[in-house]
Here is the input.
Amino acid sequence: MVVERVEVLERISAILDGQCINCSVKKDLAKSSKGNLSRMDRYCKSECTHGIKLQQLGEMLGCRERKQVQWDEPEEADDLAKSLTSLAGD
Here is the structure.
């Protein structure tokens, strides 16, 4: 069975909107871990049935090879690189 990319994205959105947004376990883990989201992330990926399903759906999306971007102005590329570097440092 071939599943369209849009259908997979709609399934992911339905799970996130219907289950994850009001998840009491997620809220409890967020409170108890005081901002460290790795415990919540680990729970969602390995123990939660909805999280596991999201992982499976994400794998169905796959990843295509990225195209190289040709900049018209070299300054634009330099400015973008500087802003990305500063964001990574924050």
